[in-house]
Amino acid sequence: MKSKKYVRSLFLTLFLLSCALVVGAADKGPQYGGTLTILEMSPTVNPMSWDVIDMNWKHGYDTGFYMEHLLMGDLQKGPRGTRQYDFAEHAWIPPEVTRGELVEKWEVKKNPLQIIFHLRKGVMWQDKPGVMKARELTAEDLVYSFTRMKTSRKAIPDSMSFIDRFEIKDPHTLIVHLKEWNVEWYYRIGWGNYDAIQAPEQEKAPGGAGRWENATGTGPYMITEYKEGHSQIYTKNPKYWDSETIGGKKYKLPYTDRIVMMIIKDEATQIASLRTGKLDLVMAMNWKNVADLKKTNPQLQWSKHLGGGNFTMAMRMDRKPFDDIRVRRAMNMAINRKEIIDKFYGGNAEMHTYPFPPTFKSVYTPLEKLPPSARELFSYNPEKAKKLLAEAGYPNGFSFKAQIPTVGQTALDIGALVTGYLAKIGVTMELETMDYPSSMSMMMKKTHSAGFFFSNGFGGPFNGIWKNFSTGFLWNPHMMSDPYLDKTHDEITTNPKLTEKQALEGIKKLAVYALDQAPAIILPTAYNYTAWWPWVKNYYGERRVGGQRSGPIHARIWIDQDMKKKMGY
User: Fold this and answer.
1) Is residue 304 part of a domain?
2) Strand partners, 37
3) Same domain, 411 and 481
4) How far is CA 546 from CA 171, 248, 431, 502, in A?
5) Contact by Cβ (8 Å): 544, 92
6) In this model, does residue 10 exceed pLDDT 80?
7) Residue 1 domain-assigned (yes or no)
8) Is the pLDDT at 7 greater than 70, yes or no?
9) Same domain flag for 549 and 489
10) Domain assignment of residue 223, yes or no
């Protein structure tokens, strides 16, 4: 008995000592220098473009370290501060947790319709030999960047159609005159996926804006090296404008000298790199690896988040047989989602996240509160599915092809599960695997197959409906064209008399309507995890400040070099 008490006492002493060491390390305050090595949210995918007008979803992952936006999420209102928001979503930063990035302040006027941006003074473009010399950011740069995006042949239809013209009042004041009100202007031109401010000199440099060697910006880091399929290296910008206050003292950003973003296609290699300390931080990890890592590396820190979008199979509503809602409903009722959650995901998934997740509280309708027809889509009822197919003229089922991107084994496994479930109601689905860029290219050109597996990002409350379901939109592989949805969404987002709360209530109803049209085989959304070593300081599990960007989060991280050495890494 005495021996057990001694062991417990010794354990408690060691535990308290370790806590004291950690607190002591934290008390030293920010440390400058060192390298932060990370895996981003999509660590298997190479950069798709370095030019903002190409408007691909991954742009913010790669450019967010050196390019900035007018606005960003205020991290002090997240886990490190007031905890108003967790900053996990890529395309939804509520207005109340937004701060200026390149602008110091802004004014919104509804009569006349204007947004007035007041730029920060002293924000400098990075010096880039062969591209540009360091100079101050001005309102002219904003007009250039927005005009180029708005008029690009790759521009997202209607993304900036609410803008009438730009007026430069002085070098640090830009007035944006609006044709009509748009409730989500802050996503379209503030902090969204496609509104980073790009220098004119980048386009004019030899080889154009698409070369990584020409990429430059105003952000905390500069891109200095890119190895396809291996890594992207970002080096500290010594003239970066921003700082943060910790313990009443102001510190200049960024803290680390370099950030290395690894590109690792093999999941086993990703895990081994984290386990051995070669990676400091992994932004998104499959739940399957968590339990083992917690055993082998108990020092790792963790945060848990619902995945950033549904993995669904869009059904082309402009082609037979999916032009018939009975067929689309049958396809959904053929899927045993509870079995997928329990047996495939080990309970680490949510059944209903379509088109918005439960974290979007203002526009989410829980499964039990959905109308019966929408709720029925989540039920497993193969017999009724067969009956619906027969009513639609397919008593013996049918065959179709479905494209699926080779972005990871999980996607392929899910595709195989769906194939099996559909076979039980007489439907034969032939999976066509293809690399991600080819898959996206076909979807954007609207040449994709009748079935199309893709990760359907949630977006925000307003653009989530717009981008996924509006007629002719780039990211609408369902080929949905619904006059009621288009008209209602337009009325909600362009009415300046609606309060934010009223607009969100309208979107909540419209989300249920879109779900009830069964445009896709709706699949469960898995939880994923963020893992980091204890020497990674000033990080609280945040993942996005808007538009797929984590760069400003990483700029606030420092490495406790002493702790890392003491831990043997």
Assistant:
1) no
2) 260
3) yes
4) 26, 27, 34, 23
5) no
6) no
7) no
8) no
9) no
10) yes
- Taking CA atoms, 165 is separated from 162, 217, 310, in Å, by 10, 24, 37
Q: Is the peptide bond before 157 cis (omega within 30 degrees of 0)?
A: no
pLDDT for the residue numbered 19: 40
Amino acid 526 reads A
CATH number for the domain harbouring residue 425: 3.10.105.10
Residues 6+ away with beta carbon under 8 Å from 269: none
- Are 332 and 357 in the same domain? yes
Is the separation of the CB atoms in 106 and 176 below 8 Å? no
Task: Report the alpha-carbon distance of residue 513 to residue 242 in Å, rounded.
Answer: 44
pLDDT band at 90 (very low <50, low <70, confident <90, very high): confident
Strands 98-100 and 103-110, bridge-based pairing: unpaired
The C-alpha atoms of residue 422 and residue 453 are separated, in whole angstroms, by 15
Q: Are residues 418 and 273 part of one domain?
A: no
CATH number of the domain enclosing 146: 3.40.190.10
Reduce the secondary structure of 60-96 to three states and give it as a string: HHHHCCCCCCCEEECHHHCCCCCCCCCCCCCCCCCHH
Lookup result for tokens 């802050």:
186
What DSSP state is assigned to residue 379?
A: S
* Residue 6 belongs to some domain of the structure: no
Domain range enclosing 72: 31-287+533-566
Residue 259's DSSP bridge partners are 36, 234
Question: 101: which DSSP letter?
Answer: S
> Residues 42, 132: one domain?
yes
Total domains, the chain = 2
Amino acid at 207: G
pTM of the full structure: 0.86
Kindly state the percentage of the chain with pLDDT values over 90.
82
Give the Cα separation of 276 and 282 in Å (integer): 13
State whether 558 and 512 are in the same domain.
no
Task: Show Cβ contacts of residue 537 under 8 Å, excluding neighbours closer than 6 positions.
Answer: 25, 26, 30, 31, 557, 558, 559, 560
Whether the ω angle into residue 321 lies within 30 degrees of 0, i.e. cis, is: yes
Q: How far is CA 240 from CA 7, 71, 134, 552, in A?
A: 52, 16, 11, 12
**44-49, Cβ contacts within 8 angstroms, sequence gap of 24 or more:** 44/263, 44/264, 44/265, 44/407, 44/408, 45/263, 45/407, 45/436, 46/228, 46/229, 46/263, 47/212, 47/226, 47/232, 48/437, 49/210
Instruction: Using pLDDT thresholds of 50, 70 and 90, give the confidence band for residue 27.
Output: low
